[in-house]
Every structure is written in C-alpha cells, then in structure tokens.
C-alpha cells in the first residue's frame, strides 16, 4: 500500500495533537484515503527536550532537512508568528507539497500569496484550523458558496475572550481575576493582548471575508475593540436587563462594500450567541437561499484544532487544486428595514438632559445608564463631547414595557 508522508512544523499543543490523532486514527485515515498516513518529520525548537515521538521520525530544528526528505507529500504548520512560517510554507509549496496551516495571523497577512503560489504549483492549501478551532466553518462556507450567496457572517471567534466574559458574569469576578483564571487554565498566554484586544478575532474575520466574498475590507476601516473596558458592574447591569456581553466579529456586504467590525456587543436570550459560553466559539452565516445557520463548538484546544487539521488533511488529499479565491457575490443585506441606520444601545456616564433631539430614549436603567435608539454617528458624537460616556450596541430586538413618556424623543 502506498503511503502519504507528512511533516509537522511545531510540536506545541496543536502540533502534538495532530501527531497523536494521526496515530490514533490511522485505520480511519487509511479507509478514507486508501493510503496509509505517516508522520515523516517534526520540526521543533529544542532537540534535547524529550517528546513521545516514535522511532524513525526525523525530529529536527532545521527545516532544510525536512525539505530534503526523499518523499514529502503534506506539510502541516502549527507554529506562531508570521515568520519564519511564511517562508517555510512557500518553500514547501515550491517543492510540490500540499499545505495545511493553523496560523491565523500569518495566513491573514499572507494567505492570498500562498493560495496563488499553491495554484501555480498545482497543490492544495488547507486552512480550516485558522478560524474557530474545531468548528468546520470554512468547509461549510465552501459548500454554501457552490450555490448560495453569503451576505452576512457573525461570530464569536476567540475562546479566551468568551471565557473571560463568562467567568466575570458567572463568578462575579473582575476582568483581572477572570484573565488570571484563563491563564491558569491555559486559555490565555502570558501576554494576552492578541486575544483580549481583538487582534486574534480580527485576523480570523479577514480570512472569513476572503472565503465568503473573495475580498477583504480595508484593514484600517475595520472597527476593532477588545473587552478590557468591560467591568463587572457593566456585566451585572446587563444581566439585570436579560442581556449578556459577547465579543462578536461581524462581516456584512452592503451597498457594494464589505463592512466589518470586531467588538463587544450585548445580546438577549433569543440571540443564537446568548448561550455560547466558556471557550466555545460560534459562527452564524446568512445566505440568500438557506437563510441563517449557526455552527457552534470548541474554539481551541489540542484535539478540536487537531480535528480541523485532520479534516484538512483529507481535503487536500482528495481535492483537485482550485482557484485561490471565491467569486465576490453581488447581493447584499437590504437596509430598507432600518433606513435611518438607528440601532439600540446601552449607554452610561451621562445625564438624560445631555441626549440630543435625534436620540430616542427607551429606558433608564440607573443613574447615568440608559437604553437608547440612535445612529452610530449620533452616539459617537455624544462620546466625543462627554469623555465619561461609554456605549455598547444591543443586537436584535430589545423588549421593554413601553410607556408613553419613555418613548418621547427629546
């Protein structure tokens, strides 16, 4: 029986998970592919560290040694940072290897170039593991895009931030206490900036945009906000209103352009993300035929991410090389239901008399905290005038017992 030879770059959580899964699911892989899958090499940093890797596998810190192997079919990349990983993958593609990556930062910056290079060299590139861990969102989008036209994607794409927000609400903890808990449990790095400031979710959002729409918004135009400004008091206030904070990435094709944001928002119990807790991720896709579908599952960890890599391994072995990008869809979300662009907001740090006549006052939550309806422009203008003002959008319909005096525009 012929053999598929695989090299794994990196032997941290993801790389080790991929190695173990190839060993534990060898029979299943052989049954699906008709060939035996073997790990031929592992790239590591420290050659002297003991690892449970079988005899006969090349364990090296020199990537050139891996490229010199007499047979090399697939390179799985599970390292961090843009370099040297980008250079490694280019060289592997030029050698004629299929590529699988779990590196969202590198792929967000260099994915288009890698896809083009893979096309030129008649190999396939898998990147399911770059977005939402074990959730097969990229495979789902590939399937939908055969006929459906995707118009909007929303997602909880970072398990660390979702875990922190859940801990703050459930355990009545501060942000700092919940972050420490995330670090102790291995969900957050010593430097958690990429997660809590929204960079990780931003990179994943750009990857999803490229798949869904064949292009990305201008990175500088994307609103990116982390969760560090959310206090335990705000979470308690939201809970009393039946709302929960979620860090949500959003992509919408509207008016011929792509609008994107990564920011904290509030959702009610009818929203599909309301019950997405802990390190779970979720992605909601709206397309013109099927409507809305939601995928939910573990967003991080050794085996959820390894699952995505292994599914990509099957994908690259069975697929013929395809063109590097999707064809941009021409349909867009209709804005006719809300022609003035008004949204519902939780605002705090101002007095009712400071609200302008263009803002609809819905409910007073407490002193200085209100539910209002206004355009984003109006709320941003308020924030520029009053430094103490903070605000968060509420997704979906906010229900309240309407009173005549409450609904009076000021």
- The succession of helices and strands, N to C, reads EHHEEHEHEHEHEHHHHEHEEEEHEEEHE
Spans of at least 5 consecutive residues with low confidence: 324-330, 334-339, 402-410
Please count the beta strands (DSSP E, at least 2 residues each). 16
CATH homologous superfamily name of the largest domain? Dihydrodipicolinate Reductase, domain 2
Query: Which class of the largest domain in CATH terms?
Result: Alpha Beta
CATH architecture of the largest domain: 2-Layer Sandwich
Q: Strand portion, in percent?
A: 25-35%
The average pLDDT score comes to 88
Radius of gyration computed on alpha carbons: 23 Å
- CATH topology category name of the largest domain: Dihydrodipicolinate Reductase, domain 2
Largest sheet: 10 strands, mixed
**Number of DSSP helical runs:** 13
Structural class: alpha/beta
N-C termini distance? 78 Å
Which of globular, elongated, flat, extended, rod-shaped describes the shape?
elongated
The percent range for helix content is: 25-40%
- Total discrete domains: 3
Domain Homoserine dehydrogenase catalytic: 136-314
Domain Aspartate/homoserine dehydrogenase NAD-binding: 10-127
EC number: 1.1.1.3
Pfam family, one: NAD_binding_3
